[in-house]
Automatic annotation (TrEMBL):
The gene is TY3B-I_1361. The keyword Transferase applies. This is Transposon Ty3-I Gag-Pol polyprotein. It holds the Pfam family RT_RNaseH. InterPro entries: DNA/RNA_pol_sf, Retrovirus_Pol_polyprotein, RT_RNaseH.
Length: 207
């Protein structure tokens, strides 16, 4: 296994990495574009091997299993956000006074979608996120949070036309309360809507 073969490359404790939480790395892919592949089922012959590897990584504390499962009796919280190149969302629930993530989702925007205005992109993020989490949200009242204040009134606007009207009509199939949340508190969905930063990103080097 990789951990055994390259033991000196993996940290066992947070002290191995020093005092900084920032670790830089680069994966050279040449002229190849990023791999985009839909999830697919593993062949039966590979299933046992993958389960054994996952179990081994859990025992070594490389990963940990999720202990939170969706509770149909509790309200779902959907946070959405959009950037120039993609949209993202986080589905969570509040359990014992603390929010726990149920699932993450993100999607790259097409070239035409990247030309949308900010408000249209933010609304697209909501529509796509709700569609993605349809099985969780349909038939239940949920809380929708966005850092784009205009959407709190746009969804109640009666004289919309074209694409916006179709999106709003689609959202009317769901029962939700929409709330504005300032950007400084909306980093969970915001991070999912952004492409990886370059090495020269001034924000990441000051965090």
């Amino acid at each position: 296994m990789l951990i055994d073969e390259y033991e000196e490359l993996f940290s066992c404790t947070s002290g191995d990495l020093g005092r900084t939480k920032l670790a830089q790395h680069r994966i050279e892919t040449g002229n190849h574009s990023p791999i985009k592949q839909n999830p697919r089922r593993l062949p039966i012959a590979k299933t046992t091997e993958v389960k054994d590897l996952l179990r081994d990584m859990q025992e070594r504390d490389v990963i940990e299993p999720s202990s939170i499962y969706p509770d149909p009796e509790k309200q779902f919280i959907l946070d959405t956000d959009a950037s120039h190149e993609s949209v993202g969302a986080v589905l969570s629930q509040e359990i014992n006074g603390q929010e726990h993530v149920i699932a993450y989702w993100s999607k790259c925007l097409s070239k035409p979608e990247r030309n949308y205005c900010v408000t249209r992109k933010e609304l697209l993020a909501i529509v796509k996120a709700v569609e993605n989490f349809h099985s969780y949200l349909y038939g239940r009242k949920f809380l929708l949070r966005t850092d784009h204040a205009s959407l709190t009134w746009l969804l109640n606007f009666k004289n919309t036309e074209g694409q916006i009207a179709r999106w709003i009509q689609k959202l009317e199939e769901y029962d939700f309360e929409i709330k504005h949340r300032k950007g400084s508190l909306h980093s969970n969905a915001d991070a999912l809507s952004r492409r990886p930063c370059s090495n020269a990103c001034s924000y990441c080097t000051t965090v």
